[in-house]
Design a protein that fits this description.
Blueprint (H helix, E strand, L loop, with lengths): L2 E4 L2 E4 L4 H5 L12 E4 L9 E7 L9 E5 L5 E4 L5 E4 L10
Antiparallel strand pairs: 1-2, 3-4, 3-7, 4-5, 5-6
Length: 95
Amino acid sequence: MAWTRKRGTLHRRPSLLSSMLRGVVTVQARAGEWLVVHGRVTDRPERVGEIVEVPHGDGSPPYVVRWVGEDHTCVVYPGPDAGVVTERPAPAHPH
């Protein structure tokens, strides 16, 4: 499934339904965008990081990411629980 950008979020391209059914996900990003990894369990918050480098010209992973609140960068290959947004997400409020 490929994605298109619209209003800071990613949207599926309906013409690629066949790849979606095969479980293929294509994420594209540019340096300066934000990677958001959603928590898989209730007590685990989402992680947000700035994409500081995209080694491939087509915007495909992996990405070099600087996580918010951490003082280092790392190489990330996003999984199905991640997405790319153009603007930094607002911090989550505690319950």
